[in-house]
């Protein structure tokens, strides 16, 4: 077990557009974040991950970057950014920037040059191909619906875009492009940042020949040809030796479609690639065969299976990241808990479940006050390009039922996570004095940070305690995971073991009472209740007891 600060840390993710607006234009900004650093310090987090703040035309809210070394006008200036970094560092917190280099914006000067002519020096910075029989070069569909190829009249060729057509994919096979990326990363690291979260980094290597998917649909999922592609480890090892290995930093790669075998390589203990990756497997347990929008109820058995697989398979080989929501996912309390009667209890239970697993926990803004999903009446009230493209394909061009698609958006839409952070019960939840770019969730009078800070039993203070416990007990960071009560349909329970200690984590995922029975082979001398979300009699016998709805307890056994 090798000790590392990034294993002991808790990361907090900010989606700057929705965090805090300082100047009344309705858009969150850097000064807004800086004004809330004491709040983050009080929560106790160690690292801040900033979703992209670079110059961008905002086709995908900053994940389409037109200048990697400049700040988005709406978010402020480089001086504002310097001030944010200094504010973090002076409070003992670190900063992780988002690195989006699978693609750039089509307004990046590399692409502006690249599309000019076939012999432009920047042509090979992107992936250009001639059409086939008057159609796209292959049948891949984009993550955001439709073809992954866009025709460009100017040179009579198509360029690849796995995301929106304003996000052309960079050509990692070109060593010049790779060097530009490494130089840019070095520039930020030398400005003093402490790490990178790498956007869809396992998509950077595409299969030779860019073969069509055999699925047979007009536009079909081609993931087998660009997820964990043939040269991805080579590129990451190069990046590691050129850049990452020269700094004491934290890295996490976003890796849709990565298996635990892939992860053991990306996040290997030798440190030749990244520190950890974001898996998506647990985010898929409520999707049917039709993909993300084919919503189905999730099962606790599936959650146990997926999470345990990642815990077991990376043991001794690599490091896990832990998350239940982010800016692309619905709110965890709406998805895995109960955002009605048991909102507070279930939010605390889910937090317990996640933070006691082995790995580095990530908190997404608003999670610490139990923010929930939102339901807007009309499609126009949504902003997200993924939602609009999908709606266009299914309802406007296709014949699917409007209301059915809206219901899927209510469950899975990314804007669930992007409504402004609810700071207090004043107009617009204290997020802005102007008109917010995306409507505030109407439940802000009930759910807001001010109220949480005034209530010692709030979700906020529960997170504060979870984070403190992590600092006090090595076992929470380094203990070995083991699932217990595997077949129980209500309770997810597991142990962590380190030297003579054991941690016993008991989480009731049901909205009703559940009976816990301690496995016979779990023997202990003394026990201490470290954290709990209901009143518990400290002397209560634990060999057999009843858990209340969404109850969670963590015992330290000796
Ligand atoms: O959001 C998703 C599920 O609907 C994913 O498909 C998501 O698009 C994918 O995980 C990649 O996400 C990242 O890259 C995208 C960006 O839109 C996301 O916000 C980002 O997290 C393109 O840069
Ligand atoms: Ca603003």
TrEMBL record:
Keyword Ribonucleoprotein recorded: no
Gene3D superfamilies: Glycosidases, Golgi alpha-mannosidase II, Oligo-1,6-glucosidase, Domain 2
Subcellular location, record wording: Cytoplasm
One GO molecular-function entry: alpha-amylase activity
SMART domains: Aamy
Pfam families reported in the protein's UniProt record: Alpha-amylase, Malt_amylase_C
Swiss-Prot/TrEMBL GO biological process terms: oligosaccharide catabolic process
One Gene Ontology CC term in the entry: cytoplasm
Keyword Chaperone assigned: no
Top-level EC class: hydrolase
Keywords in alphabetical order: Cytoplasm, Glycosidase, Hydrolase
Domain Glycosyl hydrolase family 13 catalytic as annotated: residue spans: 13-418
Database matches in InterPro entries: GH, GH13_cat_dom, Glyco_hydro_b, Malt_amylase-like_C, O16G_dom_2
Entry EC no(s): 3.2.1.10
Catalysed conversion reaction: Hydrolysis of (1->6)-alpha-D-glucosidic linkages in some oligosaccharides produced from starch and glycogen by alpha-amylase, and in isomaltose
Family per similarity comment: Belongs to the glycosyl hydrolase 13 family.
Protein name from the UniProt record: oligo-1,6-glucosidase
Organism, scientific name: Anaerobacillus arseniciselenatis
Native organism taxonomy: Bacteria, Bacillati, Bacillota, Bacilli, Bacillales
